[in-house]
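2024-03-11 09:14:02 INFO receiving multi-entity request
2024-03-11 09:14:02 INFO entity count = two
2024-03-11 09:14:03 INFO echoing inputs for audit
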Amino acid sequence: MNTTHSLPSTPPSSLFLRACLGLEVERTPVWLMRQAGRYLPEYREVRKLAGDFLALCKTPELAARVTLQPIERFALDAAILFSDILVIPEAMGMTLTFLEGEGPHFPTPLNRPAELERLVLPDPEVQLGYVLRAVRTIRQQLPAPIPLIGFSGSPWTLATYMIEGGSSKKFTRIKTALYDDPHFLDALLERLAVAVTDYLNAQIDHGVAAVQLFDTWGGVLGPDEYRHFSLEPMARIIAGLKRLRPDGTRIPVILFSKGCGGYLETIAASGCDVIGLDWTTPLDQARSRLGPAIALQGNLDPAVLYAQPGRIRTEVGRVLGTMGGQNGHIFNLGHGIEPNVNPERVAVLVQTVHEESRRIKLNVVA
Amino acid sequence: MNTTHSLPSTPPSSLFLRACLGLEVERTPVWLMRQAGRYLPEYREVRKLAGDFLALCKTPELAARVTLQPIERFALDAAILFSDILVIPEAMGMTLTFLEGEGPHFPTPLNRPAELERLVLPDPEVQLGYVLRAVRTIRQQLPAPIPLIGFSGSPWTLATYMIEGGSSKKFTRIKTALYDDPHFLDALLERLAVAVTDYLNAQIDHGVAAVQLFDTWGGVLGPDEYRHFSLEPMARIIAGLKRLRPDGTRIPVILFSKGCGGYLETIAASGCDVIGLDWTTPLDQARSRLGPAIALQGNLDPAVLYAQPGRIRTEVGRVLGTMGGQNGHIFNLGHGIEPNVNPERVAVLVQTVHEESRRIKLNVVA
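2024-03-11 09:21:47 INFO inference complete, emitting structure
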């Protein structure tokens, strides 16, 4: 599906980038979904400065500052751009608000095919210029060896918010569209796929070293619906990305569809380099189903961070143990860090990944 | 694990019971989770009479009436007792309220090991006598050939509500207990397993012909945690059930763990006769993983009921097609019917299962 796999590229020195490409590493690299966020008191300070959440996303200097905070605190192997997946629908012309404690809200959700005409195809340099300025600012301030990960929501996941009007438990409106008006949904997903491709390519142009597609809601679909409505638009995006930087380094693509452990073989056919796993699919099971050609990211249950340090060390060790020192693994949580986590527990996690994965690697070699 | 599999039993005549035991049937039997419920206008009438939801559960005549409503309307092959999974924690002494439009609420959730002492082991004939009276009333009024399914929540699922205080998205409190105080959680689950065993045996004594364990939240656990905290208590319940009626008929046990398609082999080892599947695991995939010795129940996405009749027929045909006329299948949804479904669409579903499964069976034989 993706022909860039065969293009020549310069082997990167970053542990994270090397692991994304399945190359030899001396220990397992680690970053954490939502590592820049509310669990950090220094984040909450900046958030207060910004006013509301969307203002924080839209102020490049502040977005850069919170992106760097976890890097300053922990020995993480990658930074991830601080932003929100819903900046895309907003850039397409939809009004977006974040109600305190209630999450995102689109007061006029998409309802009918005619409303697709309302949606503009954003020029990332214009409507999403604030994100690109944040990328440049972060790139200037981030220590050179640390790669910056860019990201976007998947078309399916973005569409759920745009049609439901916000977070959903039952996905009534989008599933009604799926079964009763699939052409409307296909047309929306196609527009989103184009917008996301442009957006991620612009992030790459401005300096991100890898990109991740967040497909938070792929798991609410059955296998055929997942393939058509979630995976295929993502595969079209991946096929349209600039996968090589001018300096010859390759841009890895991470695909994370939560709750889709049953669909790994489908996901592997998308052209992505790395599959993100939640904690319900063991890494060794995924590896034996997919082989070593695709890297894996994950997959500690974020709830383990509520535990005492000793238990965190045990559980991190269990996850690392399932990979047994094999290459092609990036340690992460199976979903984002929760806001009520104690940052000291995150330090325990990161330190354990460093020490324990190095130990396992040495034992494998010995 | 369960030795009653080898006990002699009289082959039942009900299509539903035959399918649970993998016996030959001339078409696929069908019932629907939450078939007695808010989508039916006649249910909403009775609910109004009762006052609140819990009062409806606790008034045997009214609970019986709503249990029978879907049987009067549709050609369903089984009735399921109208009740709620949370009657067990209430019978154990916890205060339970249902806030209109907000779901169940325990104002004083369980917090610490010492609070386990608050929980009584209910005598089903006393604290849950209203359920057993409903079972008897239904059994008197239900046409004799139609079996009545009894049910309970699984210990893990009940514990989530008891510890979180209601529905949860992140399961913070119970997962903290799981990692930080597993003995507390184990002790709670053990108490619940005993209470559920007694409760289901009492339902069997009073006339239910099969039982289902609803494990709505098993899927939030990783594989090892699922096995220990969700599956093992259910396996202990199953081992403690009266599996043969005095007349020699066997009581099938259905186990439904939502979102656990990755754990089917574990579930099959529980001693259950039937595994309920949500719509993310194709029936043919489950059958090839588990073999024909275990029956399967499911697995249409409940959202298909939002579609037009033609699409409903197509999707029902797809589900039946994955089984290709094999025995050991009970048609159902992959989760409960949603309240905003049009009952006429349910009629289309039921009629299609009858016609299409008969047609497939004839083609297989021919």
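2024-03-11 09:21:48 INFO post-check: Chain B touches chain A through 30 residues (CB under 8 Å).
2024-03-11 09:21:48 INFO post-check: Residues 1-6 of chain B have pLDDT under 50 and may be disordered.
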